[in-house]
Amino acid sequence: DEIRLENMVEKKLIGQGSFGDVYLVKTGTKQLVVKKIDLTQLSIRSQEYAHNEFRVLKSLVHPYIVAYKGGGFQGRTLNIHMEYCSGGDLANRIQDQKTKDVPFEEKQVHGWVLRLCLALKYIHGRKILHRDVKPHNIFLTDSGTIKLGDFGLVRVLNEDNLMASTSLGTPAYMSPEILQGVPYDAKADIWSLGCCLYEFAALERGFPYTEVIVPGNFSQEYGNLVKSLLNRVASRRPDAREILMLPMLVNVMGNQL
Ligand code: ADP
Ligand code: MG
User: Fold this and answer.
1) pLDDT of 13 over the 60 cut
2) Which of 46, 77, 171, 229 is the most exposed place for a label (fewest CB within 10 A)?
3) What predicted TM-score, i.e. pTM, was given to this entire model?
4) Closest residue CA from atom 25 of ligand 1
5) Residue 94, exposed/middle/buried by CB under 10 A (0-12, 13-18, 19+)?
6) Is 206:198 a contact under the CB 8 Å cutoff?
7) Distance from the CA of 86 to the center of ligand 1, in angstroms?
8) 196 Cβ contact partners less than 8 Å away, ≥ 6 residues apart
9) Beta bridge partners of 164
10) Could you tell me if the CB of 196 is within 6 A of ligand 1?
């Protein structure tokens, strides 16, 4: 499914990444996203992150993760080709809803939670931490389904390194253990997921989450889930597999998968 950039008909800048520019490229009937990362402009550490993003995204195949479509090096530029998610991101969807002053349907949100948990279960099962789970990095396809994207801060753990320790991410979505600078694992992504779930219900960030109260138009079960994800003690947070067993989500699976 490789598309040669020389044959492209149209190229439009759609995003300014932290490491590079993101273009929508149209070639005949196909369209795809190309993230262009100029390695000469980056520190050694940032170059490592760029390589990681490329290597990890390439290895992932999952219905709820933005699909890798090829790419590689053009001199000192790294191109990462991905499927185009035409619906924008969830941060924008949340903003739209807030502007209209209309909450999301809880049923629709359950579908998002289910898909995010399936994506996290898949990467966490491979000892991969996303480290930047937030509405900005959750993309909507034209069919309205969501996909987790932006693996720019991804970290792969191994037997020698069962925990990560670099403090990075987006502060408002960073877990207490990351903010405190102590080692962390996949439960840090679960905290960030909790921040997202809070935002889907409240239409605004809850940071610094001293007291988590989900708006009353969402069910008690949903509110309890958010609370359990935002437990300050990492080991007490459920993992993706456990969240998927909640009756609330089992029903979504029965109905939609
Ligand atoms: P960054 O590390 O800079 O946040 P992202 O991968 O999130 O990099 O890309 C930056 C922006 O480019 C996104 O916020 C989004 O607007 C756009 N973008 C990235 N990937 C896609 C995609 N697959 N489909 C649609 N838009 C995308
Ligand atoms: Mg991003």
Assistant:
1) yes
2) 171
3) 0.94
4) 85
5) buried
6) yes
7) 11
8) 90, 116, 133, 134, 135, 138, 173
9) 184
10) no
Does residue 22 line the site of ligand 1, with CB under 6 A?
yes
Residues noted as catalytic: 132
pLDDT tens-digit series, residues 170-208: 999 999 999 999 999 999 999 999 999 999 999 999 999
150 CA from centroid of ligand 1 (Å)? 6
| CA-CA-CA-CA dihedral for 116, 196, 126, 122, to nearest 10 | -10
Which residue out of 11, 12, 13, 14 has the highest number of ligand 1 atoms within 8 Å of its CB and is therefore the one to mutate?
A: 14
> What per-residue confidence (pLDDT) applies to 8?
61
What does the CA dihedral 45, 11, 133, 246 come to, rounded to 10 degrees?
A: -150
Q: Which residues contact 102 (CB under 8 A, 6 or more apart)?
A: none
CB of 17 closer than 6 angstroms to any ligand 1 atom: yes
- Asked if residues 240 and 121 have their Cβ atoms less than 8 Å apart, the reply is yes
The average pLDDT across 243-249 equals: 95
* Nearest-atom index, ligand 1, CA of 149: 6
Whole-number pLDDT of residue 169 = 95
